[in-house]
Amino acid sequence: MKKLKLVTILGLIWLGLALAWGEEVVEEIVAIVNDDIITLSQYKNQHEALYQMLKSQFQGEEFQQHYRQERKKLLEIMITDLLLLQEAKKKGLNVEEQVKLTIENIKEQNGINSDEELRRLMSQQGIDFEAWKSQMEENILKQGVIATEVDRNIVVDDSEVVNYYKLHSQEFTDPVEYKLKAIYISVSNKTSQEAEALKKEVANKIAAGEDFSSLASQYSEGPEKEHQGDLGTFKKGELAENLEQAVDKLKTGEVTSWLEIRDGWYILKLEEKKEARLKPFEEVRKNIEEKLFNEKRQERLKEFLKELKEKSYIKILDPNPLGFD
Known about the structure:
Blueprint: H1 7-12, E1 29-33, E2 36-39, H2 40-55, H3 60-91, H4 96-109, H5 115-124, H6 129-149, H7 158-167, E3 173-174, E4 177-186, H8 192-207, H9 212-219, E5 230-235, H10 241-248, E6 259-261, E7 264-274, E8 277-278, H11 281-310, E9 314-316
Antiparallel strand pairs: 1-2, 1-9, 3-8, 4-5, 4-7, 6-7
């Protein structure tokens, strides 16, 4: 069955998987938000969507932990979403063209020729097209409000970017890298005397000037044996502490003494060493701008949502609709 690439869109609007607001029936009201209400059915639908989303990402105790945390915030999220949609309506935002464009992009990415085919494929995956489309529209509307009320008012000055670069140079520094060859002697299949004899034999041959790669192919008992001792490249902090300390003292071409690790011994040769490098400002400028923008965006968004709630009529009638402990 053809699998749609909808992860990004569905991830942004995961609440839409609950098929939104269901049929209008006389039932318990969970919360009143200005002129709108949140019903028990709506809450149950959103809860089920949250549960299924987390179940697909986590297992066991990790799932339980995330589920407990997110469940507590669910009603607050629903209230916030409703407030944003109310603001979008007040502003007269129209996102019909954005919705059409998004659908066309999805069809193009998946090689789908018509809306009918898209509907059929979504139906096969248990997704109601109209509910999904409605939730996508609501998501774009909410983002539109945030863009207007939050993003548009954020400014990141050049001086802020430069100061961040100066104060956080370590963040933009590539660490030292070591390219290594190795000979590994295991102790799990031999006596300590046999291991010592083998270590001494290899060390003597290295001291006599024999080729390290050839010796690795002959003596090494690890996977590097098949690659003439090539162990790979490691950044500072990735090696075991005793190995890194020994390697860090070497000059290119030099060899360590035998170094003990669990179940065996290593002797390492430093093939190449790249010193730490501070990336040029222009190379990381855009990343810093994005980081500072996002930090300001988070702060301003909190302020905007707080202001929006303060000027709205919100009454929670049942803070724990499903009776969780």
